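#struct-help
A.M.: can someone run this one for me? Single chain, 169 residues.
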Amino acid sequence: MTKKYEIAKRSLYWILIFSMGGLVVSCETDTPPVPIGFGDVKVFEFYREVAVGWQSSDGAVLSGTLFLPIDTGVYAACIWHFGSNRWTRSPYQNSGMQWWLRNGIAVLTYDKRGVGRSQGQCCPWTEPDYFPLLGSDVLSGVRALASHPEIDSSKVGAFGFSQAGWVLP
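D.P.: on it. Structure tokens below:
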């Protein structure tokens, strides 16, 4: 075997070990609940943001941020779901966030259950109801999002990557 092949094989081995290690990390948190509903509006140069808290079907209170275009109005909106690890809400600097807002679409992003300021247990891979539970988190977030006065409740959707391909449908 060539030296390049051995280095690539060893690198792949360590990537696999570290990736699998992330699956067994305990993700439980005793985070005190955030207030349910919408918080105060913070205005920045190119956008506005609002703290959001909502309750999922199992009683866990999830915490997120609603990003709104700078001008007040009524907007289409989407909730952003993430991949299969310990994800916290996406900041405004997220590469896609600015595009959505510039195109008049509000975005709700949140801390995955058991991570950041959201309650619940993150990442219980062996539970048979794990994907439906995450779907419930998204659906309850969609309902919270649709109740905001600047959101057109008939134009609310979801987007994401990786695990979102399992959860969102």
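A.M.: thanks! DSSP finds four helices and eight strands in the chain.
D.P.: also worth noting: The first helix runs from residue 3 to 23.
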